[in-house]
Amino acid sequence: MRPIPSILVVLASAGVLACQRIPARPLAPERTLAAFEARSLDAPGLAAFLAAALGRSPAEWPLREWDLRTLTLAALYFHPGLDVVRAHADVARAAVESAGARPNPTLSLAPQLSANPQGAVSPWLAAVHFDWPIETAGKRARRVERADAAAAAAREAVIVEAWRIRRQLESSLVALATACRQRDALAEEVGLEERVVALLEHRLRAGSAAANDVAPGRRALLQATTERAAAEAQVGDAFARLAAALGVAASALAGVTLPQGLDASDADALLSVSPDEARRRALRERADVRQALADYAAAEATLRLELARQYPDLHLGPGYEFDQGQNKWGLSLSLDLPILDRNQGPIAEAVAGRAEAAAKFVATQAGVIAEIEQALARRDGERARHERMRILSADREANLARATAAMTFGAVDRVAVLDAEIERRRAARAATDAEGALAQALVDLEAAMEGPLPSVVLDRPLAETTVPEGQRVAHAIGGAT
Known about the structure:
Layout: H1 3-18, H2 29-37, H3 44-54, H4 68-78, H5 80-99, E1 106-109, E2 112-113, E3 124-134, H6 139-206, H7 211-246, H8 264-272, H9 275-285, H10 287-308, E4 314-323, E5 326-335, H11 344-408, H12 414-449, H13 455-459
Antiparallel strand pairs: 1-3, 2-3, 3-4, 4-5
Protein backbone atom coordinates (compact mmCIF):
# COMPACT_ATOMS: atom_id res chain seq x y z
CA MET A 1 0.00 0.00 0.00
CA ARG A 2 2.92 2.41 0.40
CA PRO A 3 3.51 3.13 -3.32
CA ILE A 4 -0.01 4.51 -3.78
CA PRO A 5 0.24 7.33 -1.21
CA SER A 6 3.70 8.18 -2.56
CA ILE A 7 2.34 8.55 -6.07
CA LEU A 8 -0.48 10.76 -4.80
CA VAL A 9 1.96 12.98 -2.93
CA VAL A 10 4.11 13.37 -6.05
CA LEU A 11 1.09 14.19 -8.23
CA ALA A 12 -0.30 16.68 -5.72
CA SER A 13 3.07 18.37 -5.31
CA ALA A 14 3.50 18.67 -9.08
CA GLY A 15 0.04 20.22 -9.41
CA VAL A 16 0.72 22.76 -6.68
CA LEU A 17 4.12 23.74 -8.08
CA ALA A 18 2.62 24.20 -11.57
CA CYS A 19 0.08 26.79 -10.35
CA GLN A 20 0.83 30.40 -11.19
CA ARG A 21 0.79 33.09 -8.55
CA ILE A 22 -0.03 36.60 -9.72
CA PRO A 23 -0.10 39.33 -7.09
CA ALA A 24 -3.17 41.52 -6.73
CA ARG A 25 -2.93 45.00 -8.21
CA PRO A 26 -5.80 47.12 -6.93
CA LEU A 27 -6.61 50.33 -8.79
CA ALA A 28 -6.02 53.62 -7.03
CA PRO A 29 -8.22 56.30 -8.67
CA GLU A 30 -6.39 59.14 -6.92
CA ARG A 31 -3.03 57.95 -8.20
CA THR A 32 -4.20 57.41 -11.78
CA LEU A 33 -5.86 60.85 -11.79
CA ALA A 34 -2.66 62.48 -10.54
CA ALA A 35 -0.65 60.64 -13.18
CA PHE A 36 -3.04 61.79 -15.91
CA GLU A 37 -2.84 65.40 -14.81
CA ALA A 38 0.97 65.15 -14.74
CA ARG A 39 1.18 64.10 -18.40
CA SER A 40 3.15 66.49 -20.56
CA LEU A 41 4.65 66.65 -24.03
CA ASP A 42 8.18 66.61 -22.60
CA ALA A 43 7.83 63.16 -20.99
CA PRO A 44 10.94 60.95 -21.43
CA GLY A 45 8.76 57.99 -22.38
CA LEU A 46 7.24 60.00 -25.23
CA ALA A 47 10.73 60.89 -26.48
CA ALA A 48 11.67 57.20 -26.59
CA PHE A 49 8.40 56.39 -28.36
CA LEU A 50 9.00 59.06 -31.00
CA ALA A 51 12.52 57.75 -31.54
CA ALA A 52 11.22 54.22 -32.07
CA ALA A 53 8.44 55.37 -34.41
CA LEU A 54 10.54 57.79 -36.46
CA GLY A 55 13.67 55.65 -36.53
CA ARG A 56 15.73 58.46 -35.00
CA SER A 57 15.86 60.45 -31.81
CA PRO A 58 14.40 63.97 -31.86
CA ALA A 59 17.04 66.62 -32.63
CA GLU A 60 16.02 68.43 -29.47
CA TRP A 61 13.90 67.57 -26.48
CA PRO A 62 11.46 68.83 -25.53
CA LEU A 63 10.35 69.84 -29.01
CA ARG A 64 9.81 73.53 -29.56
CA GLU A 65 7.49 73.03 -32.50
CA TRP A 66 5.29 70.03 -33.21
CA ASP A 67 4.29 68.98 -36.69
CA LEU A 68 1.31 66.80 -37.53
CA ARG A 69 3.32 63.58 -37.58
CA THR A 70 4.93 64.02 -34.17
CA LEU A 71 1.70 65.29 -32.63
CA THR A 72 -0.14 62.26 -34.03
CA LEU A 73 2.43 59.98 -32.41
CA ALA A 74 1.95 61.84 -29.13
CA ALA A 75 -1.80 61.21 -29.38
CA LEU A 76 -1.21 57.52 -30.08
CA TYR A 77 1.15 57.39 -27.10
CA PHE A 78 -1.15 59.05 -24.58
CA HIS A 79 -4.73 58.38 -25.68
CA PRO A 80 -6.46 55.98 -23.24
CA GLY A 81 -8.87 54.72 -25.90
CA LEU A 82 -6.00 53.04 -27.70
CA ASP A 83 -4.94 51.34 -24.47
CA VAL A 84 -8.40 49.80 -24.21
CA VAL A 85 -8.30 48.17 -27.66
CA ARG A 86 -4.68 47.13 -27.11
CA ALA A 87 -5.74 45.39 -23.92
CA HIS A 88 -8.57 43.66 -25.77
CA ALA A 89 -6.10 42.53 -28.44
CA ASP A 90 -3.94 41.15 -25.64
CA VAL A 91 -6.92 39.19 -24.30
CA ALA A 92 -7.65 37.83 -27.78
CA ARG A 93 -4.04 36.80 -28.22
CA ALA A 94 -4.06 35.01 -24.88
CA ALA A 95 -7.20 33.18 -26.01
CA VAL A 96 -5.14 31.54 -28.77
CA GLU A 97 -3.06 29.81 -26.13
CA SER A 98 -6.20 28.77 -24.28
CA ALA A 99 -7.70 27.37 -27.49
CA GLY A 100 -4.60 25.24 -28.11
CA ALA A 101 -4.55 23.73 -24.62
CA ARG A 102 -5.12 20.00 -24.41
CA PRO A 103 -7.65 18.67 -21.89
CA ASN A 104 -6.16 17.31 -18.66
CA PRO A 105 -6.66 13.70 -17.65
CA THR A 106 -8.80 12.91 -14.62
CA LEU A 107 -7.56 10.87 -11.67
CA SER A 108 -10.07 9.09 -9.46
CA LEU A 109 -9.39 7.19 -6.19
CA ALA A 110 -11.71 4.68 -4.53
CA PRO A 111 -10.27 3.17 -1.31
CA GLN A 112 -12.39 0.50 0.43
CA LEU A 113 -12.12 -1.59 3.61
CA SER A 114 -13.44 -5.13 3.73
CA ALA A 115 -15.32 -5.97 6.97
CA ASN A 116 -14.77 -9.70 6.54
CA PRO A 117 -11.53 -10.31 4.59
CA GLN A 118 -11.72 -14.08 5.33
CA GLY A 119 -7.98 -14.69 5.51
CA ALA A 120 -6.97 -12.26 2.75
CA VAL A 121 -3.51 -10.74 2.86
CA SER A 122 -5.01 -7.28 3.51
CA PRO A 123 -8.53 -6.01 4.24
CA TRP A 124 -7.92 -2.97 2.02
CA LEU A 125 -9.08 -2.43 -1.52
CA ALA A 126 -7.88 0.60 -3.52
CA ALA A 127 -8.61 1.59 -7.09
CA VAL A 128 -6.79 4.24 -9.08
CA HIS A 129 -8.31 5.13 -12.45
CA PHE A 130 -7.25 7.63 -15.09
CA ASP A 131 -9.61 9.16 -17.64
CA TRP A 132 -7.47 10.40 -20.52
CA PRO A 133 -9.61 12.33 -23.08
CA ILE A 134 -8.56 12.18 -26.72
CA GLU A 135 -10.14 14.81 -28.96
CA THR A 136 -11.15 13.68 -32.42
CA ALA A 137 -12.03 15.29 -35.76
CA GLY A 138 -9.46 18.08 -35.34
CA LYS A 139 -11.42 20.00 -32.70
CA ARG A 140 -8.29 21.52 -31.19
CA ALA A 141 -7.09 22.79 -34.55
CA ARG A 142 -10.52 24.31 -35.23
CA ARG A 143 -10.46 26.07 -31.85
CA VAL A 144 -7.03 27.50 -32.58
CA GLU A 145 -8.18 28.61 -36.01
CA ARG A 146 -11.14 30.44 -34.52
CA ALA A 147 -9.01 32.07 -31.83
CA ASP A 148 -6.42 33.15 -34.42
CA ALA A 149 -9.14 34.83 -36.48
CA ALA A 150 -10.55 36.57 -33.40
CA ALA A 151 -7.05 37.78 -32.47
CA ALA A 152 -6.57 39.11 -36.01
CA ALA A 153 -9.87 41.00 -35.76
CA ALA A 154 -8.76 42.46 -32.42
CA ARG A 155 -5.47 43.61 -33.96
CA GLU A 156 -7.36 45.36 -36.76
CA ALA A 157 -9.54 47.02 -34.12
CA VAL A 158 -6.38 48.66 -32.76
CA ILE A 159 -5.71 50.19 -36.19
CA VAL A 160 -9.34 51.30 -36.48
CA GLU A 161 -9.05 53.09 -33.14
CA ALA A 162 -5.69 54.61 -34.08
CA TRP A 163 -7.18 56.15 -37.21
CA ARG A 164 -10.18 57.40 -35.23
CA ILE A 165 -7.78 59.17 -32.87
CA ARG A 166 -5.78 60.63 -35.76
CA ARG A 167 -8.95 61.92 -37.40
CA GLN A 168 -10.12 63.45 -34.13
CA LEU A 169 -6.72 65.10 -33.65
CA GLU A 170 -6.60 66.55 -37.17
CA SER A 171 -10.19 67.78 -36.92
CA SER A 172 -9.37 69.50 -33.63
CA LEU A 173 -6.29 71.15 -35.13
CA VAL A 174 -8.27 72.42 -38.12
CA ALA A 175 -11.08 73.68 -35.87
CA LEU A 176 -8.60 75.41 -33.55
CA ALA A 177 -6.71 77.10 -36.39
CA THR A 178 -9.95 78.24 -38.06
CA ALA A 179 -11.40 79.53 -34.79
CA CYS A 180 -8.21 81.48 -33.99
CA ARG A 181 -8.16 83.13 -37.42
CA GLN A 182 -11.86 83.97 -37.14
CA ARG A 183 -11.36 85.42 -33.65
CA ASP A 184 -8.47 87.61 -34.78
CA ALA A 185 -10.33 88.74 -37.90
CA LEU A 186 -13.43 89.59 -35.89
CA ALA A 187 -11.38 91.53 -33.37
CA GLU A 188 -10.10 93.73 -36.20
CA GLU A 189 -13.58 93.96 -37.67
CA VAL A 190 -15.01 95.12 -34.34
CA GLY A 191 -12.34 97.83 -34.22
CA LEU A 192 -13.33 99.03 -37.68
CA GLU A 193 -17.03 99.00 -36.79
CA GLU A 194 -16.29 101.05 -33.69
CA ARG A 195 -14.47 103.62 -35.79
CA VAL A 196 -17.42 103.81 -38.20
CA VAL A 197 -19.90 104.28 -35.35
CA ALA A 198 -17.66 106.92 -33.77
CA LEU A 199 -17.54 108.89 -37.02
CA LEU A 200 -21.32 108.61 -37.52
CA GLU A 201 -22.03 109.67 -33.94
CA HIS A 202 -19.70 112.65 -34.37
CA ARG A 203 -21.68 113.66 -37.45
CA LEU A 204 -24.91 113.16 -35.52
CA ARG A 205 -23.72 115.49 -32.78
CA ALA A 206 -22.60 118.00 -35.40
CA GLY A 207 -26.03 117.86 -37.02
CA SER A 208 -24.73 116.56 -40.34
CA ALA A 209 -26.29 113.10 -39.96
CA ALA A 210 -29.61 111.74 -38.74
CA ALA A 211 -30.18 109.05 -36.11
CA ASN A 212 -31.25 106.65 -38.86
CA ASP A 213 -27.78 107.00 -40.35
CA VAL A 214 -26.15 105.79 -37.12
CA ALA A 215 -28.47 102.85 -36.38
CA PRO A 216 -27.14 100.48 -39.13
CA GLY A 217 -23.58 101.01 -37.91
CA ARG A 218 -24.56 100.24 -34.33
CA ARG A 219 -26.33 97.05 -35.42
CA ALA A 220 -23.28 95.99 -37.42
CA LEU A 221 -21.07 96.65 -34.38
CA LEU A 222 -23.36 94.61 -32.16
CA GLN A 223 -23.33 91.71 -34.61
CA ALA A 224 -19.55 91.79 -34.98
CA THR A 225 -19.08 91.93 -31.20
CA THR A 226 -21.42 88.97 -30.75
CA GLU A 227 -19.62 86.97 -33.42
CA ARG A 228 -16.25 87.75 -31.82
CA ALA A 229 -17.47 86.46 -28.45
CA ALA A 230 -18.73 83.29 -30.16
CA ALA A 231 -15.37 82.86 -31.92
CA GLU A 232 -13.53 83.19 -28.61
CA ALA A 233 -15.75 80.48 -27.15
CA GLN A 234 -15.03 78.28 -30.17
CA VAL A 235 -11.29 78.71 -29.60
CA GLY A 236 -11.64 77.47 -26.03
CA ASP A 237 -13.80 74.55 -27.10
CA ALA A 238 -11.42 73.56 -29.91
CA PHE A 239 -8.45 73.77 -27.54
CA ALA A 240 -10.19 71.48 -25.05
CA ARG A 241 -11.12 69.02 -27.81
CA LEU A 242 -7.52 69.02 -28.99
CA ALA A 243 -6.30 68.13 -25.50
CA ALA A 244 -8.88 65.34 -25.35
CA ALA A 245 -7.73 64.04 -28.73
CA LEU A 246 -4.16 63.93 -27.44
CA GLY A 247 -5.17 62.21 -24.21
CA VAL A 248 -3.67 64.91 -21.97
CA ALA A 249 -4.96 67.70 -19.77
CA ALA A 250 -5.39 71.09 -21.44
CA SER A 251 -2.62 72.51 -19.23
CA ALA A 252 -0.12 70.21 -20.97
CA LEU A 253 -0.48 72.28 -24.17
CA ALA A 254 0.50 75.58 -22.60
CA GLY A 255 3.30 77.21 -24.59
CA VAL A 256 3.32 74.51 -27.29
CA THR A 257 3.54 75.57 -30.95
CA LEU A 258 0.95 73.50 -32.79
CA PRO A 259 0.53 72.71 -36.50
CA GLN A 260 -2.42 74.12 -38.44
CA GLY A 261 -3.62 70.76 -39.75
CA LEU A 262 -2.56 68.66 -42.71
CA ASP A 263 0.90 69.21 -44.16
CA ALA A 264 0.97 70.98 -47.51
CA SER A 265 2.27 67.89 -49.32
CA ASP A 266 -0.47 65.71 -47.83
CA ALA A 267 -3.12 68.28 -48.71
CA ASP A 268 -1.90 68.47 -52.31
CA ALA A 269 -1.98 64.67 -52.60
CA LEU A 270 -5.53 64.53 -51.24
CA LEU A 271 -6.66 67.30 -53.56
CA SER A 272 -5.38 65.39 -56.58
CA VAL A 273 -6.38 61.83 -55.68
CA SER A 274 -8.87 60.36 -58.15
CA PRO A 275 -12.12 58.63 -57.12
CA ASP A 276 -10.92 55.27 -58.45
CA GLU A 277 -7.65 55.48 -56.56
CA ALA A 278 -9.45 56.56 -53.38
CA ARG A 279 -11.80 53.56 -53.58
CA ARG A 280 -8.94 51.14 -54.28
CA ARG A 281 -6.91 52.43 -51.36
CA ALA A 282 -9.86 52.31 -49.01
CA LEU A 283 -10.92 48.77 -49.92
CA ARG A 284 -7.31 47.60 -49.79
CA GLU A 285 -6.06 49.38 -46.68
CA ARG A 286 -9.07 50.09 -44.46
CA ALA A 287 -8.63 48.24 -41.19
CA ASP A 288 -12.37 47.83 -40.65
CA VAL A 289 -12.59 45.90 -43.93
CA ARG A 290 -9.81 43.57 -42.78
CA GLN A 291 -11.50 43.31 -39.40
CA ALA A 292 -14.76 42.24 -41.05
CA LEU A 293 -12.85 39.62 -43.05
CA ALA A 294 -11.26 38.32 -39.85
CA ASP A 295 -14.68 38.18 -38.17
CA TYR A 296 -15.96 36.14 -41.11
CA ALA A 297 -12.97 33.80 -40.82
CA ALA A 298 -13.76 33.36 -37.13
CA ALA A 299 -17.40 32.56 -37.96
CA GLU A 300 -16.27 30.03 -40.56
CA ALA A 301 -13.91 28.42 -38.02
CA THR A 302 -16.76 28.28 -35.50
CA LEU A 303 -18.86 26.38 -38.00
CA ARG A 304 -15.99 23.95 -38.69
CA LEU A 305 -15.62 23.42 -34.94
CA GLU A 306 -19.32 22.72 -34.41
CA LEU A 307 -19.29 20.27 -37.31
CA ALA A 308 -16.32 18.51 -35.72
CA ARG A 309 -18.22 18.27 -32.43
CA GLN A 310 -20.64 15.87 -34.11
CA TYR A 311 -18.01 13.21 -33.59
CA PRO A 312 -17.54 11.98 -30.02
CA ASP A 313 -14.23 12.17 -28.21
CA LEU A 314 -12.51 9.06 -26.93
CA HIS A 315 -11.71 8.46 -23.27
CA LEU A 316 -8.80 6.16 -22.50
CA GLY A 317 -8.89 4.80 -18.98
CA PRO A 318 -5.84 2.95 -17.65
CA GLY A 319 -6.36 1.80 -14.08
CA TYR A 320 -4.85 -0.05 -11.16
CA GLU A 321 -6.56 -1.87 -8.31
CA PHE A 322 -5.11 -3.23 -5.09
CA ASP A 323 -7.58 -5.95 -4.14
CA GLN A 324 -6.78 -7.39 -0.68
CA GLY A 325 -3.18 -8.08 -1.62
CA GLN A 326 -3.67 -8.65 -5.35
CA ASN A 327 -2.38 -6.13 -7.94
CA LYS A 328 -4.76 -5.73 -10.86
CA TRP A 329 -4.19 -3.62 -13.97
CA GLY A 330 -6.81 -2.68 -16.52
CA LEU A 331 -7.59 -0.53 -19.54
CA SER A 332 -10.96 0.91 -20.60
CA LEU A 333 -12.12 2.78 -23.69
CA SER A 334 -15.28 4.87 -23.68
CA LEU A 335 -17.05 7.44 -25.89
CA ASP A 336 -20.34 9.31 -26.03
CA LEU A 337 -22.96 7.80 -28.28
CA PRO A 338 -24.32 10.47 -30.68
CA ILE A 339 -27.82 9.05 -30.67
CA LEU A 340 -30.07 11.73 -29.16
CA ASP A 341 -28.05 14.83 -30.06
CA ARG A 342 -25.80 15.29 -33.09
CA ASN A 343 -24.97 18.93 -32.22
CA GLN A 344 -27.67 20.17 -34.61
CA GLY A 345 -28.49 23.29 -32.59
CA PRO A 346 -24.95 24.71 -32.33
CA ILE A 347 -24.35 23.88 -36.00
CA ALA A 348 -27.47 25.82 -37.01
CA GLU A 349 -26.32 28.76 -34.85
CA ALA A 350 -22.87 28.66 -36.48
CA VAL A 351 -24.40 28.62 -39.97
CA ALA A 352 -26.52 31.64 -39.09
CA GLY A 353 -23.50 33.34 -37.50
CA ARG A 354 -21.48 32.86 -40.67
CA ALA A 355 -24.28 34.38 -42.74
CA GLU A 356 -24.43 37.30 -40.33
CA ALA A 357 -20.64 37.84 -40.60
CA ALA A 358 -20.90 37.76 -44.40
CA ALA A 359 -23.69 40.34 -44.33
CA LYS A 360 -21.64 42.56 -42.02
CA PHE A 361 -18.66 42.34 -44.38
CA VAL A 362 -20.80 43.36 -47.36
CA ALA A 363 -22.29 46.19 -45.28
CA THR A 364 -18.81 47.30 -44.22
CA GLN A 365 -17.66 47.41 -47.84
CA ALA A 366 -20.77 49.35 -48.85
CA GLY A 367 -20.24 51.75 -45.96
CA VAL A 368 -16.62 52.32 -46.97
CA ILE A 369 -17.59 53.07 -50.57
CA ALA A 370 -20.34 55.44 -49.42
CA GLU A 371 -17.93 57.20 -47.04
CA ILE A 372 -15.36 57.60 -49.83
CA GLU A 373 -17.94 59.01 -52.24
CA GLN A 374 -19.26 61.42 -49.62
CA ALA A 375 -15.73 62.53 -48.74
CA LEU A 376 -14.89 63.08 -52.41
CA ALA A 377 -18.09 65.04 -53.00
CA ARG A 378 -17.41 67.15 -49.91
CA ARG A 379 -13.83 67.77 -51.06
CA ASP A 380 -14.92 68.91 -54.52
CA GLY A 381 -17.74 71.03 -53.15
CA GLU A 382 -15.58 72.74 -50.54
CA ARG A 383 -12.81 73.29 -53.07
CA ALA A 384 -15.26 75.06 -55.38
CA ARG A 385 -16.60 77.10 -52.47
CA HIS A 386 -13.09 78.05 -51.37
CA GLU A 387 -12.26 79.20 -54.89
CA ARG A 388 -15.38 81.36 -55.04
CA MET A 389 -14.58 82.90 -51.66
CA ARG A 390 -11.00 83.56 -52.78
CA ILE A 391 -12.28 85.39 -55.87
CA LEU A 392 -14.73 87.37 -53.74
CA SER A 393 -11.97 88.29 -51.31
CA ALA A 394 -9.76 89.49 -54.18
CA ASP A 395 -12.67 91.53 -55.54
CA ARG A 396 -13.23 93.21 -52.16
CA GLU A 397 -9.50 93.91 -51.94
CA ALA A 398 -9.68 95.70 -55.28
CA ASN A 399 -12.79 97.58 -54.15
CA LEU A 400 -10.92 98.82 -51.07
CA ALA A 401 -8.11 100.05 -53.28
CA ARG A 402 -10.60 101.93 -55.44
CA ALA A 403 -12.28 103.50 -52.40
CA THR A 404 -8.93 104.56 -50.98
CA ALA A 405 -7.96 106.15 -54.27
CA ALA A 406 -11.35 107.86 -54.51
CA MET A 407 -10.95 109.37 -51.02
CA THR A 408 -7.60 110.80 -52.09
CA PHE A 409 -9.42 112.77 -54.76
CA GLY A 410 -12.27 113.69 -52.42
CA ALA A 411 -14.86 111.55 -54.19
CA VAL A 412 -15.78 109.59 -51.04
CA ASP A 413 -15.38 110.17 -47.32
CA ARG A 414 -13.63 108.22 -44.57
CA VAL A 415 -16.77 106.24 -43.69
CA ALA A 416 -16.97 104.83 -47.22
CA VAL A 417 -13.34 103.67 -46.99
CA LEU A 418 -13.98 102.05 -43.63
CA ASP A 419 -17.04 100.31 -45.05
CA ALA A 420 -14.93 98.99 -47.92
CA GLU A 421 -12.31 97.78 -45.42
CA ILE A 422 -15.02 96.02 -43.39
CA GLU A 423 -16.34 94.37 -46.55
CA ARG A 424 -12.82 93.21 -47.40
CA ARG A 425 -12.34 91.71 -43.95
CA ARG A 426 -15.72 89.99 -44.06
CA ALA A 427 -14.85 88.47 -47.42
CA ALA A 428 -11.47 87.37 -46.06
CA ARG A 429 -13.24 85.86 -43.06
CA ALA A 430 -15.59 83.96 -45.37
CA ALA A 431 -12.54 82.70 -47.29
CA THR A 432 -10.96 81.61 -44.02
CA ASP A 433 -14.10 79.71 -43.10
CA ALA A 434 -14.13 78.06 -46.54
CA GLU A 435 -10.45 77.18 -46.16
CA GLY A 436 -11.17 75.51 -42.82
CA ALA A 437 -14.08 73.58 -44.32
CA LEU A 438 -11.87 72.41 -47.18
CA ALA A 439 -9.17 71.33 -44.72
CA GLN A 440 -11.76 69.36 -42.74
CA ALA A 441 -12.98 67.74 -45.96
CA LEU A 442 -9.42 66.63 -46.70
CA VAL A 443 -9.09 65.24 -43.18
CA ASP A 444 -12.27 63.23 -43.71
CA LEU A 445 -11.02 61.98 -47.08
CA GLU A 446 -7.70 60.89 -45.59
CA ALA A 447 -9.48 59.07 -42.77
CA ALA A 448 -11.82 57.39 -45.26
CA MET A 449 -8.87 56.05 -47.26
CA GLU A 450 -6.64 55.33 -44.23
CA GLY A 451 -3.14 54.03 -44.82
CA PRO A 452 -0.22 52.36 -43.03
CA LEU A 453 0.79 53.22 -39.49
CA PRO A 454 4.16 52.62 -37.78
CA SER A 455 4.24 49.18 -36.17
CA VAL A 456 5.55 50.67 -32.93
CA VAL A 457 2.18 52.37 -32.53
CA LEU A 458 0.61 48.96 -32.12
CA ASP A 459 3.41 47.41 -30.08
CA ARG A 460 3.61 50.00 -27.32
CA PRO A 461 2.76 48.84 -23.78
CA LEU A 462 -0.28 50.14 -21.99
CA ALA A 463 0.02 53.71 -20.74
CA GLU A 464 1.22 54.04 -17.18
CA THR A 465 -1.85 55.95 -16.05
CA THR A 466 -4.33 53.29 -17.10
CA VAL A 467 -2.99 50.50 -14.90
CA PRO A 468 -1.43 50.29 -11.42
CA GLU A 469 2.20 51.26 -11.10
CA GLY A 470 4.62 48.60 -12.26
CA GLN A 471 2.14 46.67 -14.39
CA ARG A 472 3.04 46.36 -18.06
CA VAL A 473 1.51 44.34 -20.81
CA ALA A 474 3.70 43.48 -23.79
CA HIS A 475 2.12 43.64 -27.20
CA ALA A 476 3.16 41.89 -30.39
CA ILE A 477 0.78 43.32 -32.95
CA GLY A 478 2.35 43.58 -36.38
CA GLY A 479 1.77 46.60 -38.58
CA ALA A 480 2.99 48.23 -41.74
CA THR A 481 5.93 50.61 -41.50
